[in-house]
Amino acid sequence: MTDISLAIIGGTGVYALAQLEDAEAHQPVTAYGAPSGPIRIGTLAGKRAAFLARHGEGHSLPPHKINYRANLAALKALGATRVLAINTVGGITEAFGPRVLACPDQLIDYTWGRISTLSEEPGSEVLHVDFGDPYTPALREAVLSAAGRAGVTLVGHGCYGATQGPRLETKAEIARMKRDGCNLVGMTGMPEAGLARELGLDYACLAIVANWAAGAGPDPNEVITFDDVLANVAAASAGLPALVGAI
Ligand code: HPA
Fold first, then answer.
1. pLDDT tens digits for range 193-244
2. Quick check: 1 pLDDT over 90?
């Protein structure tokens, strides 16, 4: 097993990494089951890198059905130590409008009913990992400095609120999240970040803002469509190859 310099988990609208060269597909079955799909390992900017589409390459898995434990355990088994999670999100506060890229430093978990620990099975060791800084500071720093080198504009902070989905939120839910201090809302940030910490993986989030969250934009009655989400993710992803290569 050769070390993987960076593992990337792609979210909605990011189902492949075009610049991954000579990629081979791996699909290990872990103690927690099978990952969302093939893990493609190849060369990126001269280093070994891995890519996994979180929802499956055909986007067939809703957020609450993703086997987050298997995805991360499989990446770790293949030699990954650093995971960059790409998450498509809605923007709640002013600096986080559609097509913005952000690297949040905090999160609030509003999800429920998901398996959120490795120590779920009877008899397994109970884990109480430190999670004060949910994203690994050194990897966040690497992302921010890579963005500077690659000339990619990135908001270098923010609080990610993880909701259950798969429906989008009500205006009241977003207003509450704003009062709580959330800048971004997405459906897949947890339990992924917590499980990465339990597995000892470095983990950071690159959030792609696809839309204003419900009632948060200049037109409070705007209806969010999946077509708009995908168009904004595609536009905002223009800088991704340079950014990921620089990391
Ligand atoms: N809410 C939750 N998840 C999302 C959104 C949103 O508005 N946009 C993209 N993912």
1. 999 999 999 999 999 999 999 999 999 899 999 999 999 999 999 989 999 9
2. no
| Nearest ligand 1 atom, CA 213 | 7
Using alpha carbons, select from 239, 192, 232 the residue that is nearest to residue 212: 232
Instruction: Name the residue of 169, 176, 206 whose CB sits within 8 Å of the most ligand 1 atoms, as the mutation to test its pocket.
Output: 169
Nearest C-alpha neighbor of 164 from the set 227, 199, 116, 219: 116
Q: Which mutation among 89, 99, 109, 206 tests ligand 1's pocket best, with the greatest number of atoms within 8 A of CB?
A: 89
The values of phi and psi at residue 137, to 5°, are -55, -40
177, 185 contact by CB (below 8 A): yes
pTM (predicted TM-score): 0.96
Confidence (pLDDT) at 7: 97
- 187 annotated ligand-binding residue: yes
Q: What is the pLDDT of residues 100-136, one digit of tens each?
A: 999 999 999 999 999 999 998 888 888 899 999 999 9
Is the shortest distance between the CB of 9 and ligand 1 below 6 Å? no
